[in-house]
């Protein structure tokens, strides 16, 4: 193999790299930022697509976020690629924060008492995948509770992305214009 390591990584280093990126989270975030900035379309389309993806990431339907985001992005004139990227907001780092927050917020909005769920056997419900019994105590509050923070997060992502894409493209246009002017004067 031409790109193989001379000395293979040990199990400890492979586990560490599976959890933490080798060059840090800052580099991963910079990569995603650059990826979003280079998506084709208007700044509104990119920002709307990303915001819709983030809003759908707040819903409790893990694995179906992208299936919700793509049609909504199409309906609202957003970038489908940006919507798909926005769904990565729900990841192993953010889900342990999102799920309890949305469930508790949904319970509060619906006016349910959390003490009534003491006899709930989640293991049995998930083992049999009985969605009808899972809907009322878990999925309904999480869905209702995901709307306020999801919409708020989507609005913030829209504003930041719109301004970022617009300024990125303006700076790029200025650089290209300056380069074309320099070539013309030669």
Description:
Helices cover 72% and strands 0% of the residues. It is mostly helical and 186 residues long. The protein has one domain (41-185). The longest helix has 55 residues, at 131-185.
Question: What descriptive keywords fit this protein?
Answer:
single chain; 8 helices
Give the C-alpha Rg.
Answer: 22 Å
* Count of strand segments: 0
Outline the biggest β-sheet. Answer: none
Shape: flat
| Secondary-structure content class | mainly alpha
> Which ranges are low-confidence, i.e. pLDDT below 50, for 5 or more consecutive residues?
none
Task: Supply the number of structural domains.
Answer: 1
- How large a portion of the residues is in β-strands, by DSSP E? under 5%
Number of helices: 8
> In percent, how helical is the residue content?
over 70%
Q: What value does the average pLDDT take?
A: 85
How many angstroms separate the termini?
A: 48 Å
Order of helices and strands: HHHHHHHH
Quick structural overview:
With 186 residues, the chain is mostly helical.
SSE topology:
Blueprint lengths: L10 H9 L5 H13 L5 H15 L7 H11 L4 H7 L8 H16 L11 H7 L2 H55 L1
Helix pairs in contact: 3-4, 3-5, 3-8, 4-5, 6-8
